[in-house]
UniProtKB/TrEMBL annotation:
Keywords: Membrane, Transmembrane, Transmembrane helix. SUPFAM superfamilies: EAL domain-like, Nucleotide cyclase. This is Diguanylate phosphodiesterase. It comes from the Bacteria. The chain crosses the membrane at residues 13-33, 160-179. Residues 180-232 form the HAMP domain. One of its GO terms (biological process) is signal transduction. InterPro entries: Cyclic-di-GMP_PDE-like, EAL_dom, EAL_sf, GGDEF_dom, HAMP_dom, LapD_MoxY_N, LapD_MoxY_peri_C, Nucleotide_cyclase.
Length: 663
């Protein structure tokens, strides 16, 4: 009932329900009136019949009231009584003695007992005085038997019920087809409204006959057209700004500015126990090609190397490539240098294979270094420049490190984690802007433990993807966290979902079945999906998001804006939130173009009914600015640093106050 109150009842159901109610009332009302009328008729008939019988029989037996002829009177009474229309006949003397008497069993065959109790006919008794000469010889009492009347009323009721039912059924069918024709344009309007709520701006081509609905349809189409026009204009404007400011024209990779912002955001998210890596690819023969063969040859050279890097980094989901100078490209990884040994060897092999007389100074050189959350960009680039110079001078082996684990060892580690591994959970709130005490939800971070040591998540999931075990890790993560969530069932949490699980029908079927076992899964849960994952197949992503929605799980697009692509893909994705990547908030106070970018994203997303969240909020000024820009939520260490969470975590841990961090 509460669900019905919350969701409401459709107009179609209400009208059909009203018709059914009216038909039911009409049916039973008409049946009741008919039965009552028939009952009154037969009641009068029984009374008249009893009176006629009493009068006629009384006159017939009057000559035979003496003792010698009383037998004849009895015979005449029996002849009339045996016709079956009478319940009893009784001749009583003036002294009150019963002279003659006949009784018929009261059983009524062929009529249900409930009907007899409902109709309740009263058997009438009529009298007639019988005279013998000039004296009263007795009084004759005749009572009609109601059995025949009950039977006839029952037959009439059945015929009336069937007739009424068929008549109402015909009327109901006619009403159904008439209402169906009327509701058809309403259904089109409803579908159009649902499409708009799901971020799809569809025109309604069905023009209704009803003038009022025609006006509403025209208004809806006009509104949808305006929404589409505004959406296209804003996405085009944002796309243009992104390309001008953050995208390299030749390679369509992020430029030096995008690289600097991404490094700052990436560094801020490094766990204290982890390190990330930066790889520098230098094209030593670019200047030679530009001089000897022209800039077109140089551009082709850069584009060729770019294609190689894109192909080689496909297996590394957390990698990001930038063109930071004319002949320099950089890749930032969420892995340590040892983990990337196989990638480096393969990349060097590819570059060495392409060396030829065309490239006097070599095809390309590769250098790599690690960085942590405290390293500055200039120091990291300085280390890379030194390593690159050594590589160009022929100094080998500086970057050729041993892999920490082999493929079989990784398989054993991951299977052990899936079977019995421990997961440490922490959370960080996403604050509702404009209210320092209200959270939109809490993002959950997980750290898998193997042999009492925490494993680098990026490396773990990269190897799991290579071994086709990512989905099993996600299942392990969800099973472990749902047990924890049951303790804090009223809080809304967000979990990160991998690419393999997101697109897997097997995972979706498992999730549906598991949600029936663990009903907590259906409430207050969000899946955060990387933008790059969604862009792999937007159509399949829309279907997956819709299926999650049916279970009760909302979706948030994280690292929004890092793909440097058009935002038109948002149209048709029924997501609740987008989380702008931290690269746009790191220098928000000094970079006004980022302000305009975030404001435009707000306009686009709000026109689609999507809430906008900014992350990596590190100070009060940035928080105030993103609130002014109209963002819906904020996340970062200024609001609250990640805190560990377990089944024993107290409720007051989920209470936060931004200003408290200023103390």
């Amino acid at each position: 009932m509460q669900s019905l109150i919350n969701k409401g009842m459709s107009l179609k159901v209400q009208i059909y329900g009203l018709l059914f109610l009216l038909a039911t009332v009409t049916f039973f009302g008409r049946l009741y009136v008919n039965v009552e009328s028939t009952k009154e008729y037969f009641q009068e008939q029984m009374s008249s019949h009893a009176q006629d019988a009493a009068t006629s029989l009384g006159l017939s037996i009057s000559p035979y009231m003496d003792e010698e002829n009383i037998v004849i009177a009895e015979t005449m009474m029996a002849a009339i009584f045996d016709s079956g229309y009478y319940k009893s006949m009784q001749l009583v003397s003036p002294d009150g003695d019963v002279m003659l008497e006949r009784n018929n069993p009261s059983a009524i065959e062929g009529v249900p007992n409930w009907f007899i109790e409902w109709v309740d006919l009263q058997a009438p008794t009529q009298t007639s005085e019988v005279s013998s000469g000039w004296q009263i010889a007795g009084t004759l009492y005749v009572t009609s038997h109601p059995g025949v009347s009950y039977f006839k009323i029952w037959k009439f009721t059945k015929r009336a019920a069937i007739g009424s039912f068929l008549l109402i059924l015909v009327c109901y069918l006619l009403a159904y087809f008439i209402l169906k024709a009327i509701f058809k344009p309403l259904n089109s309007l409803e579908n159009q409204a649902n499409a708009v709520s799901q971020k799809r701006f569809e025109q309604n081509s069905n023009v209704p006959f009803t003038s009022e609905l025609r006006v509403v349809t025209a208004a809806m189409n006009k509104m949808v057209a305006n929404l589409q026009k505004n959406f296209d204009a804003m996405t085009k404007q944002t796309e243009k700004l992104t390309k001008e400011v953050l995208v390299d024209d030749l390679t369509e990779l992020g430029n030096r500015r995008a690289f600097s912002s991404y490094f700052a955001a990436n560094k801020a998210q490094i766990h204290s126990d982890d390190v990330h890596s930066m790889c520098l690819i230098t094209l030593p023969s670019l200047q030679q090609l530009n001089t000897e063969q022209g800039y077109q040859a140089g551009d082709e050279y850069v584009s060729e190397v770019t294609d190689i890097l894109i192909d080689k980094t496909k297996e590394y989901d957390s990698s990001k490539i930038f063109r930071i100078a004319g002949g320099s490209l950089a890749i930032i990884f969420d892995y340590d240098k040892a983990f990337l040994n196989g990638f480096l060897n393969e990349l060097n092999h590819t570059f060495n294979h392409r060396n030829s007389n065309r490239y006097d100074h070599g095809y390309a050189t590769v250098s790599i270094t690690e960085f942590n959350q405290h390293d500055e960009l200039k120091d990291v680039l300085s280390n890379l420049d030194t390593a690159s110079t050594l590589a160009q001078q022929g100094v080998k082996g500086a970057d050729n490190v041993d892999t920490r684990f082999g493929l079989n060892e990784w398989r054993a580690i991951i299977n052990n984690i899936i079977a019995s591994g421990e997961i440490n959970f922490s959370f960080q709130p996403v604050k509702l802007n404009g209210n320092d005490k209200v959270g939109l939800y809490y993002e959950v971070f997980s750290r898998f433990v193997h042999n009492n040591e925490q494993v680098n998540n990026a490396q773990l999931f990269a190897m799991a993807e290579r071994l086709n075990l990512t989905m099993e890790l996600d299942k392990k993560l969800i099973r472990s966290f749902i047990e924890l969530k049951e303790t804090h069932y009223d809080k809304t949490f967000a979990l990160n979902l991998s690419r393999e699980a997101f697109y897997s029908e097997e995972f979706l079927n498992w999730l549906k079945m598991y949600s029936e076992v663990k009903a907590t899964l259906k409430n207050n849960l969000i899946f955060e999906i990387k933008e790059s994952v969604l862009l792999d197949d937007v159509t399949a992503a829309a279907n997956a998001i819709a299926e999650f929605k049916l279970i009760g799980i909302d979706t948030c697009i994280e690292h929004f804006g890092t793909s440097l692509t058009s935002f038109k893909y948002l149209q048709g994705l029924d997501v609740e939130y987008i989380k702008i990547d931290g690269t746009y908030t790191q220098d928000l106070l000094i970079n006004r173009q980022n302000n305009f970018f975030i404001q435009t994203i707000n306009n686009i997303c709000h026109s689609l009914g999507i809430k906008v969240i900014t992350c990596l909020i590190e100070n009060k000024e940035t928080l105030s600015l993103i609130e002014e820009l109209g963002c819906d939520g904020a996340q970062g260490n200024y609001i609250q640093k990640p805190l560990n969470i377990s089944q024993k975590t107290e409720e007051n841990v989920f209470t936060f106050h931004t200003k408290g961090l200023e103390l």
